[in-house]
Specification:
The protein has 5 helices and no strands. It is mainly alpha-helical. The C terminus is likely disordered.
Length: 143
Amino acid sequence: MKQNKLTTSIFILGALALMVGGVVAADAASDSFKGKMFGLSEEESVEKIEEIEVRRGINWANIEVNREEVLAAISANDYERWKEAIGENNPFAEKVTADNFSIFVEAHNLMEEARSKFAEIGIENQGFGMVRGHGMGGFGGRR
């Protein structure tokens, strides 16, 4: 009986120690992001954040330019122009080929038509990507 109580007590103390260690580690990890950015001074941190924001702005501007070019290529049903517009690192570049580009254009047009239909009935900004494993932005799925 004493052996069982001792074993249980040791188990409980060990579990508590792991939980406390996890809380301390989580607090230390979250504290490292509060203005320090992995040991940077406050001034270095502010400078780094400004650099990130500038890059982010440039990236968004480039994305918008590319988006317009991609949409123009799709509208023109021009595979070569589309491929150049999306760039080499786009995941679609591996899947969409010259042979199946017309199917891709058809699917794109159907999505645009669906968005328009949803807007007609007051459902807007619903994505067609996968959200928590559910297509069409999670329509009909459990949240």
